[in-house]
Specification:
The chain has 308 residues and is of the alpha/beta class. The protein has ten helices and nine strands. The longest helix is centred in the first third of the chain and has 22 residues. The protein starts with a helix and ends with a helix.
Length: 308
């Protein structure tokens, strides 16, 4: 009965289903030899200028929020990718890079890695959310748009109403990629979904209890139609947190300690248009995060089967 329900639910909007995402998806690789990103405050720039490589090694412990590369994340079940793009100061090749404090891999390499997986798995669908841009001019956006065209071509689904997008629709059209673009550029390109259609409220707290309260309040206020929705099960360190755990890093100091409480919240959620849609986390391989989120879809399908 469960398999029958899953097949039948391919006609439901993917905005009603539950997907798994990674926060700062590209940060499994942080280039310690790179300059500091242009978005970093002057205090960080000065810190690195004084302490050099030592400072960057310490920064990496707090900037890396994932350990698995794109291929491994896809294989584990991740389908939403949080992508932040930057130019690099004095880069002679004028490349685009993923960036989070320090620079990561070239964007082109990451997009091609994801595309290789999609080509091998023609019924899989991913969300690419380009939500931060640093040091980018119009020419850089044009370069990125062309890069997306060259890499994914007709795999990209043109922007339509979110409630119209079902797995069945995507399979029939042979679309596998939804690109969300948090820039006015999105209105000029048919295959770019406006950023406001992928809201991602941010709790910005180190307190697990406050995070859970924020997540629950956000779910309650979620618009029932018209957009996708991200629940960021993520704690954000303050400067004092980093100082106290400077040698340990984000994973040991915050994420692992808070994991039991955060997972308890995830287990209590329901998929559906008034529930969770996309849940993102740091270090997605920890605990049973991925399997727990996947199970939320099973309960949605079972409920649908019970009512038919």
């Amino acid at each position: 009965m469960l398999w029958k329900a899953i097949l039948k639910s391919t006609c439901k909007s993917i905005g009603e289903r539950q997907s798994i995402g990674s926060h700062d998806s590209f940060s499994f690789y942080i280039d310690e030899a790179s300059p500091v990103g242009p978005e970093q405050p002057e205090t960080v720039q000065n810190f690195v200028s004084v302490f050099g490589t030592v400072a960057k090694k310490l920064m990496r412990k707090w900037l890396a929020t994932q350990t698995m590369n794109f291929t491994s994340q896809l294989g584990a079940g991740i389908r939403y990718f949080d992508l932040r793009i930057s130019t690099k100061p004095r880069d002679p090749d004028n490349e685009l890079y993923f960036a989070h404090g320090l620079f990561s891999a070239k964007v082109k390499e990451g997009l091609e890695e994801i595309n290789a997986f999609l080509s091998e798995h023609p019924k899989e669908v991913v969300f690419l959310d380009f939500n931060h841009f640093y040091g980018m001019q119009k020419c850089h956006h044009e370069k990125l748009v062309q890069m997306l065209k060259d890499t994914y071509g007709n795999k990209m689904c043109p922007a339509i109403f979110a409630h119209e997008v079902s797995l069945q629709y995507l399979w029939e059209k042979e679309h596998q990629v939804l690109v969300f673009y948090h820039s006015p550029v999105a209105v000029e390109v048919a295959f770019l979904w406006p950023g406001q259609m992928m809201p991602a409220p941010w709790a910005n707290t180190t307190d697990t209890e406050k995070l859970i309260q924020f997540l629950q309040a956000s779910i309650t206020e979620r618009r029932k139609k018209g957009s996708f929705f991200i629940s960021q099960v993520v704690l954000t360190p303050k400067a004092s947190t980093v100082v106290k755990g400077v040698a340990s890093g984000l994973r040991e100091t915050i994420t692992e300690r808070a994991l039991p409480a955060m997972m308890e919240w995830v287990r209590t959620q329901k998929a559906g248009e008034s529930g969770v849609n996309i849940i993102t986390a740091d270090f997605v391989e920890l605990g049973d995060f991925i399997s727990t989120v996947i199970k939320l879809n099973y309960s949605l399908d079972e409920g649908e089967d019970d009512t038919t």
